Each structure stands twice: as structure tokens, then as C-alpha cells.
């Protein structure tokens, strides 16, 4: 009996040691370049995971789209070819339609409010909805607030947008928003926006501060109105195949590290945004800040869109609109 007990004890110890010593290197894809805020956040995520697993789990970051564009990497994650992807929420609505509600214009009064919502049970519930598609949602990242910028005309009210041709993404929601504001939506490829503004093909475009400045759009559209019509978050997602291969302890480490990396990513985004804003002003651009009254007019103009784009998710929309920050 003693021999049997000793054998079992040794076997358990060997097995336990093997599990503890198991090492793995996982891959994370991001289509943004080295140094971009989402990549900075991903690097912090990888650092925390490696530190908390004593080096057992390493995460290699592949920035710059080297593993494919967003759509391709999301497909790869579903069958385990890639372990993590940083993605915008736009393609994720194909897997969880509730994502569309998060893109509604003028939904969040501030960046902090949006993250309070996303890091509450509301946001966690949306992430959980991805699992049926073979995807585990880990955390939310910041992509800033999108606003309008114009070539020749200062915009200080909804009326000032009337009749303007505004470049937008080829998105039903974005086109409907611009029409609701009295302007004419004009889908144009991103790489052609500078010349379209320069030659008068469009009168305006929309993006966040870094998108405006670092693509030199401030040179041809120097009036930036802080209407902040869209705050569209991004995500770190994980292959469910990889997730299911981990112990519960390692799953907890990865989830907690991802959530904690959000703070680092948001700080990097805030720094990049402030830098872009300051540099644009130094180079002659003008920032237009709206009063609360004028801001409310922009929001009121698009409210008729809410029922259509929240159909089937009315409770979700209501919970966001009535959310109280603690």
C-alpha cells in the first residue's frame, strides 16, 4: 500500500510540475503601426501576462497588419490561427449586433462616461455575446471622439452644416447621421480625402484629432469643430480555441491583464490626441468648441435614428441613456 501511495504521490507531483512548467507563446495582431496607442496597450497587456505567469505565457505583438487586415485576422482567430486581435467594433457587429448600438451618434456625453458603461455589466454582457462565434471579448480600448472638420467654413451650429458635402465612411449609420444633420454624405476612400478636400470635391470630413492632424488634413481643412458625434470603442479579442485550452487560473490572469492594459492604452491615446491638437493649432488650424446648448442641438437632430439602429436592443439603448456614473 505504501508503495502504491508513493507512486501516486510522485505521479501527481510530476503532473503538477508539468502543468506549472508548461510554456506557450501566443500571437496578437494589430493593423496599427508600432508606437500607436493600441499597440502600446497591447504591449502592456503582454508584459503583465508574462510577469504574472513567471514567463510561462508570452504574447508576441504583430503590428502594422503583418498578419492580415482586420477582417482576415478576425477570421483567423475563430479557428485558432491567431490568439488575439485588436479590432474596431465595426466588423464585430457581424458577430454581435448589439455592437451597432454602441456606435450611435452623440450617445456618450464624455469619454469617461463611455468607459464607465463599457466596464460595467452592460459592456461585459456585450462581450459575452461574442462567444457563440468562437470569440472571447477581453477588454475595450479607446479610439477617441470623431468630429467634423471643414475646408472653408467655420461650423458653430447645426445650421452651418446645411448643404455641406461631407466625406464619410461607407456606412449606413454614418450616412444617415450626416443627412439628419442637413448635410450631404459623400463616401470617399480614406487615401483620397486630402485631395478631395483640397480640390473641393467635398467641403468637410470627420475623424478624431490624430486622424485629422497626422494625415495632414488640417492643411486643407483647418476648422475643427468639437461636436464629438461618435465615440466608437475598440476591443482586444481572443480565440475561444486558445481560451479553452488554458487553465481557469491562466484565463483569470489574461482577462485581468487585458482589462488593466486599458488604462495604459487610454493614457497613450490621450497623449497622442493632445499632441495632435496642439501641433495643428501651432500650424494655423482653429478649434471650435460648442456650447452645451449648441451641442444639444446636434444630438436632437439625430434622435430619430435611434429607434431604427437599436431595433431589438431597445433595452440596451435605454440602459445606456439612463446609466448613472458612480
Percent helix range:
40-55%
H and E string = HEHEHEHHHEEEHEHEHEEHHEHHH
Full CATH superfamily name of the largest domain: Bacterial extracellular solute-binding protein, family 7
Mean pLDDT: 92
The strand order across the widest sheet is 2-1-3-10-4
What Rg do the Cα atoms give?
23 Å
Biggest sheet character: 5 strands, mixed
Percentage of β-strand residues: 15-25%
Signal peptide: 1-21
Organism: Halanaerobium hydrogeniformans
Keywords: Signal
InterPro entries: DctP_fam (IPR018389), TRAP_DctP (IPR004682), TRAP_DctP_sf (IPR038404)
Commentary on this structure:
With about 325 residues, the chain is an alpha/beta fold. It has two domains: about 20-95 and about 130-145 and about 230-275, 3-Layer(aba) Sandwich (D-Maltodextrin-Binding Protein, domain 2), CATH 3.40.190; about 145-230 and about 290-320, Bacterial extracellular solute-binding protein, family 7 (D-Maltodextrin-Binding Protein, domain 2, 3-Layer(aba) Sandwich). Helix content is about 45%, strand content about 20%. The chain has 14 helices and eleven strands. The protein has helices at about 1-20, 35-50, 70-80, 100, 110-120, 120-130, 170-180, 195-200, 210-215, 240-245, 250-280, 290-300, 305-310, 315-320; strands at about 25-30, 55-60, 85-90, 135-140, 145-150, 165-170, 185, 205, 225-230, 235-240, 285-290. A five-stranded mixed β-sheet has the order 2-1-3-10-4, with helices on both faces. It has a four-stranded mixed β-sheet with strand order 8-5-9-11, with helices on both faces. Strands 6-7 form a two-stranded parallel sheet. Helix 2 (about 35-50) runs antiparallel to helix 11. The protein starts with a helix and ends in a 5-residue tail after the last helix.
